Amino acid sequence: MRRRTRRSYNSYGTRGPRKIWKVLLGILIVIALIAGWGAWKVFTPYQPDETAAAALAEVADAVKVNEQEHWVGFEPAKRSGAGVILYPGALVKPESYAPLARRLAEKGHHVIIAKMPLNLALISPDLANEVLKAYPKEAFVIGGHSLGGVMAARYAAAHPDQVKGVFFLASYPDNKGNLKDKNLPVISLLGSDDGVVQMENVQSGRTYLPANTLYFTVEGGNHAQFGSYGVPKGDNPAKISAVEQWNQTVTALQDWMKESVDGAPKNQ
Questions:
Q1: pTM value?
Q2: β-pairing, 166-169 with 140-145?
Q3: Where are the transmembrane segments (predicted)?
C-alpha cells in the first residue's frame, strides 16, 4: 500500500485552516472598510458655504472676528446689550453660523460660536464655562440650533445663575434641560417650513419651558437657514431667502433681549 507523504498530510492538516483564516481575514477587512465608510458618512460635518466664509473673512471696523481654540468670536467695536453664546447643530461646523453671528454683532452683541468636539454639542455641553471664564465681566444669553439648543438648555438648567436667558433655533429642551422654574427669559424660534425638527419633540419640550416663553415663527423659513451650510437631508425648501431668515432671527432675538434680558455687564 502506498504511504501518504508528509506533504499530503499538510494538505489536510495545514492548508485548509490557512485558507479559512485568509477568507475570514478578508471578510473582516471588508466589514472594517464598510464600517469605516459608514462612520465617515455619518460623522462628516456640514461645511460652511461661501456666504459663511465671506462673513468670516470680511474686514470691518464695527466687528472683529476673534478665533480661539474652542470658539469663534464676533466682537463689536461698541457693545450694546447681552452677549450671545451659540451652540451649533449636530455635525455642523461652527463657522456655518457666521452670517447670523456677524449680523448680531453689528447690533452690538458679542457673539461666541462654540467649537464642539466632533461637531457634537452632546460631547461638551459645558463648554460655555470656558467662555464665561474668559469674559467674567460680560453677561451672556445661551442657546443653540437644533441639537445645540437642547444642550444649551441643559447647561442653563444646571447653571441658571451663570446666564441671563436661553434661546432656541429650531430646537427645544428635554427633561435634563428643564427651564420651567429657572426664572430665565426664553425665546423659541422655528421656521414654518422646517423639515428636520420633529414637531412632537417641539411640542413635548414646551412642558419644560416657563409660561412666559416667547414663541416666534419665521414664516417661510426652514431648518438649515439659521446657518449657512447648504440643505441637510430631509429639510424643506425655504420660501424666503437666507438673508431674510437671518434678519428676522436677529430682529426677534434683539427685541427679546432688549425687553427681557438684563444686558448690563457683570460686576459693574
A1: 0.84
A2: parallel
A3: 20-40
